[in-house]
């Protein structure tokens, strides 16, 4: 019984570690996507780019980089952040994650009133 435990225990610990790291990564990815969606929505409603960037940085957390682009009636926001392991077996490891969103500006904000075509 002791020999089986000695063989299985490291595998179980490794599996738990993988699940925890994956959970942190998925949580960070969802946070970045939410930040990009919020900023794109603000830009589509006519808020200034500075306000939208501040909102995205607040939602995404420390160290988030926000880039904004526009193509006629469409705005696109991309939020990136580096997520790293703070300690343990993966200390020093890091992952670059990004989330993006696109939204159509309100018709009254687009010069022709048509809202533009597809992106």
From TrEMBL:
The keyword Transport does not apply. The chain crosses the membrane at residues 6-28. InterPro entries: Rv3655c/TadE, TadE-like_dom. It comes from the Bacteria. Residues 99-119 are annotated as: Disordered. It holds the Pfam family TadE. Keywords: Membrane, Transmembrane, Transmembrane helix. Residues 2-41 form the TadE-like domain. This is Pilus assembly protein. It comes from Brachybacterium kimchii.
């Amino acid at each position: 019984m002791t020999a089986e435990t000695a063989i299985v225990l490291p595998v179980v610990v490794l599996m738990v570690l993988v699940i925890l790291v994956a959970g942190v990564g998925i949580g960070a990815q969802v946070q970045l996507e939410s930040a990009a969606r919020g900023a794109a929505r603000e830009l589509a409603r006519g808020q200034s780019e500075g306000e939208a960037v501040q909102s995205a940085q607040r939602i995404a957390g420390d160290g988030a980089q926000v880039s904004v682009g526009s193509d006629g009636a469409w705005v696109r926001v991309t939020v990136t952040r580096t997520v790293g392991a703070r300690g343990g077996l993966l200390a020093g490891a890091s992952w670059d994650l990004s989330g993006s969103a696109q939204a159509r500006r309100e018709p009254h904000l687009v010069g022709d009133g048509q809202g533009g075509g597809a992106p």
